[in-house]
Amino acid sequence: MKSIRLFSYTALFLALMILSSYIQITLPTPVYSMHITMQLFVSIVCGFCLPLRYGLLCMGVYVLMGLMGIPVFASGGGIQYILYPTFGFILGFVACTGSCALLRQRKRPNSMKEYLFIGAFGLAIYYILGNVYYYFSFPFFLNTHIPLWLSLLNAFFVSIIPDLLIMVAACRTAKSLQIFFK
Questions:
Q1: CA nearest 74: which of 116, 25, 117?
Q2: Is the pTM value of this prediction over 0.90?
């Protein structure tokens, strides 16, 4: 009975992840357009609410659906998405959910401070993975080189403030949802 409930929650978070990719603000960045979506919110809440393997299953299925050509990513889908500089942020959702779930299971947070610490750690993992992929994808996939400062401007400085606000909202939501997911 518990596994049926967990699979139902996993499917719910998968649907929320797909829907949240369509709620987006496109940022006019100089090199490659970036999107602020509510996917980070769903990724963090998923990590707090689902056990590690169910959270990873949810995000893994999301990535596989997108790579199979189902337009679930913010800019569509398909195997060619691996060549996009922003694909690292898609992988970052998996890592963010996994790290939030793992830390939640180990620390068992009670206070908002503990939730924010775990959420900030997940956000940091998301940004590290996304920015490293973003920077190195240009010479490998697009056969061009951009300076590190421009890469950080596009993939970090432009979006960090909105993403910090999204992380705080996700932590508050996850804390209030914990009564349903114990």
A1: 25
A2: yes
